[in-house]
Amino acid sequence: MPKNLSKILIARTINADKIQNNLNELVECVYNFQNNFIAKHLAKKEYNEYLEFMNIDISPRYIIAPYFMIKDNEDFKTKIKWLAINNNSKIGSYYFFWIS
Fold first, then answer.
1. Rg (CA), the chain
2. Alpha carbon distance 73, 78 (integer Å)
3. Measured between alpha carbons, how far is residue 22 from residues 3, 4, 99 in Å?
4. Can you tell me the distance from the alpha carbon of 87 to that of 80, in angstroms, rounded to the nearest whole number?
5. Of 3, 25, 56, 59, whose CB neighbour count within 10 A is largest?
6. For 29-80, what is each residue's pLDDT tens digit?
């Protein structure tokens, strides 16, 4: 989680402008989390040795870019902002992509 956003998201006061200003860092953090979390957890438990011995690849097959829900009770201008953020929160030029 980007440090600039961690306090905002914990407080549950998500603001489209604050997300937009930190979007690239947020997308990068989400990508790194999805790509590395399982491997780090398995290595911590030392399960990775067994998986490597058995030639089992644990890397994710898909990575999904972050997106934000648009609520009915938001005004039109805010909905447009969230649509723009969702449109820009891609990894490369993809909203999700197949790795293996």
1. 17
2. 10
3. 10, 7, 25
4. 10
5. 25
6. 888 888 888 888 888 878 888 888 889 888 888 888 888 888 899 999 999 9
**Strand 62-64 to strand 96-98: parallel, antiparallel, or no bridges (unpaired)?**
antiparallel
CA 54 to chain centre: 30
The residue type at 73: N
Q: Is 50 exposed, middle or buried (0-12, 13-18, 19+ CB in 10 A)?
A: exposed
* Residue 76 pLDDT: 95
Other C-beta atoms closer than 10 Å to the C-beta of 19 total 21
Instruction: Please give the pLDDT value at position 96.
Output: 61
Length of the chain: 100
Element (H, E) at 96: strand 96-98
The pTM for the full model equals 0.71
